[in-house]
Amino acid sequence: MTRKIAPYPGAAGGWDALASSFRHVREQGIVGRGARTLLRANQPDGFDCPGCAWPDRNPQSSFEFCENGVKAVAAEATRRRATREFFATHTVSELSRWDDYSLEAEGRLVEPMAYDPADDKYHPIRWDEAFSRIAVALKTLDHPDQALFYTSGRTSNEAAFLYQLFVREFGTNNLPDCSNLCHEASGLAMTEQIGVGKGTVTLADFEKAEAIFVFGQNPGTNHPRMLGELRSAARRGCRIVVFNPLRERGLERFADPKHPLELAGGSTPIASHYYPLRIGGDLAAVKGMLKRLLERDALDHEFVARHTQGFDALREDLLAEDWSLLEAESGLSRAQMEEAADVYAGSGATIVCWAMGITQHRHAVATIQMLVNLLLAGGNFGKPGAGACPVRGHSNVQGDRTMGIDEKPSPEFLDRLGEAFGFAPPRQPGHDVVGAIGAMARGECRVLFAMGGNFAAATPDTAFTARALRQCEMTVHVSTKLNRSHLVHGRQALILPCLGRTELDAQAAGPQAVTVEDSMSMVHLSRGTNPPASEHLLSEPAIVARLAEATLPASRTPWRWLVEDYDRIRDRIAEVIDGFEDFNARVRTPGGFRLPNAAARCQWNVPGERARFVVHPVPRTAAPGAGLMTLMTIRSHDQYNTTVYGLDDRYRGVSGERRVCFISAADLARLGLAAGQWVDIVSVWHDGEREATRFLLVEHAIPPGCLAAYYPETNGLVPLDHHAERARTPASKSIPVRLRPTRDLGAALSP
Ligand SMILES: Nc1nc2c(c(=O)[nH]1)N[C@H]1C(S)=C(S)[C@@H](COP(=O)(O)OP(=O)(O)OC[C@H]3O[C@@H](n4cnc5c(=O)[nH]c(N)nc54)[C@H](O)[C@@H]3O)O[C@H]1N2
Ligand SMILES: Nc1nc2c(c(=O)[nH]1)N[C@H]1C(S)=C(S)[C@@H](COP(=O)(O)OP(=O)(O)OC[C@H]3O[C@@H](n4cnc5c(=O)[nH]c(N)nc54)[C@H](O)[C@@H]3O)O[C@H]1N2
Ligand SMILES: [Mo]
């Protein structure tokens, strides 16, 4: 692959998106007539795209092409296999030196594997033997709290429900999950203010909004189907207001491959207003907007009086706020903040969207609460076209939480679970991801079981986390592909290969469907249709059931019986979890059903029964320290979290290289550096420095003092205790760093 850096001239989408998806499909060895069926995501009676949590339009009425959806499905449907012969020829030490792209490229895992320290290799193991080894490891712990059970966000509702049940029957609430790394701050912030931790809008609201604000999100790469909604909105005159340090092409203009004129080179402008603010400057920017609304008296007084509490304190705080501080911290001018506020004031119905550019900061909770303040001040709840839209990442990360994958479950939930299954659930809160790493490092947790994901690569402080993982008695990963977490392992290590979302899941009662919940609380069926990658794969629910039988012989739960027919699992979910009454019938209606959302109806389940305005001071982050800059770690266009599909980031003009660091022209000049030069990135923290070596400087339109590089290569720079206040989401979008020219240039120049 040749390295090339050149600005991308086109709109997002268009012909290049089609061409890229064809290329990725071909690279996975999927050719010929079968390709269409293998790749048919989001079809009625088909599988839910494992790409992202953005909801589907009614698939009967339209076809939505999504380049990154195709890549995600093709990656699962790949013809490549990581066989026992592969594992026999490579030691783990050798594989540890491979990059993430090469590990992924080995293809699907086909049978359970166990690590043998004698030859430093993974060897095939029978499923029964694997389960009994795990059961022994779990049962010999002094206390169930010494085990950790991680979940990534692809796990279905059915698997998640059984999994958390097993974990709680085993005796712990140690259920860290990828939400802890993702939208944890959104849930916490919103629950305190409006009584629900989920978005309040549906796709229908996107049709009626007069303004859509997009904070800290790159949908052109991470939620491509959202661009279709933004495109339609823009075309009917809806204002689209973007706050992002980077000029993300998908938010500037989009060419929908479905429309012939746009495929032929035309495109639709998306953002009507684009504010390239400083990294971490959102809270200040939104305060500036609120201050302007107050000064113009452009608030929804009736809504504020009827539905809210705490406004007076916010007003006092805003009036006392100093414009020069707001300008310095947001990196925007007063005129820009006022302009954005005027767009907001001129809109009769506004949606505010946000993602990782907001949640992965120290002051994430405060920033989200300021966004909700903004919505409340304009009366943007409880009416069509308005509301809060935290855009979730993994395709079922929201559903997993709903099912009880939660290290801090509510007492009511535990009561109902215990009653339905006849046991006494543990009451002690468990570890989140950051807590789990600390607990492993201290030797307090000794077994890590992971339902999907890539714990070693997705988490912060890579070197520290690796030492923590290596201290475990046992690490177990339920996975579809080989990844870093299989190589950074405990004394014993197992890989349990499972069916993917796209694959036929045959159980005793016949082929099964699972359910998922999207970012807008729609619950619907997903039925895999592709032939499984190997005959030895088990479904995630089956893995949980067999693990439970091996570990908890006295359990009263009929594990195997439940898994014979997933309708039985759904009946038990309906018994325990609100909103799932008559689950099996309702989920079979086309498109599924929407879970109730009290805040969307202006019912405020908070003390005082009115939505709460919350006051927060402007965080001082503009100067992270003498000589320091702020680094955000973001996704390239060719990756799915830690899964690297390719080395291109098309819209940002990068091909053939992932070790790049985006920097402004002003900073290059100030630091005496040049684009094309190799640098090391050094993060500076109270406990010392961390470094990531050999990044190619790429000049980019980014505010001075701000840098961007890809995750997971930069996770080693994120200190474990550098996380959101209260929510503990690693602050991987605001790492204080400095740059240093790479010394060993020889190593830098050979790829
Ligand atoms: N193809 C693909 N799809 C995905 C994923 C994937 O990796 N690949 N991952 C999935 C998951 S789990 C998630 S959570 C989502 C992630 O979706 P995003 O949140 O869009 O992902 P990031 O790449 O982390 O992008 C963060 C965006 O926030 C901006 N940003 C960073 N810091 C700030 C800030 O301080 N303020 C503002 N206003 N903006 C900021 C960055 O410039 C970037 O545009 O996508 C999901 N979908
Ligand atoms: N620096 C930095 N770090 C970050 C982020 C960031 O923006 N910057 N983002 C954070 C976010 S938002 C998230 S959500 C996390 C993601 O963290 P994780 O969810 O832990 O990581 P993924 O990369 O999504 O997991 C990929 C692996 O999942 C397995 N897999 C894929 N499909 C399935 C399936 O159907 N079942 C099972 N059992 N396994 C499957 C495959 O083996 C694959 O290797 O990373 C976080 N880490
Ligand atoms: Mo995420």
Automatic annotation (TrEMBL):
A GO BP entry: cellular respiration
Key words, A-Z: 4Fe-4S, Iron, Iron-sulfur, Metal-binding, Molybdenum, Oxidoreductase
Entry GO terms, CC: membrane; oxidoreductase complex
Ranges where the Molybdopterin dinucleotide-binding domain occurs: 630-734
Domain of life where this protein originates: Bacteria
Reported cofactor(s): [4Fe-4S] cluster; Mo-bis(molybdopterin guanine dinucleotide)
A single GO molecular function term of this UniProt record: molybdopterin cofactor binding
Pfam families linked to this entry: Molybdopterin, Molydop_binding
Domain Molybdopterin oxidoreductase as annotated: residue spans: 108-477
SUPFAM superfamilies linked: ADC-like, Formate dehydrogenase/DMSO reductase, domains 1-3
Family membership: Belongs to the prokaryotic molybdopterin-containing oxidoreductase family.
Record-given protein name: CbbBc protein
Organism: Arenimonas metalli CF5-1
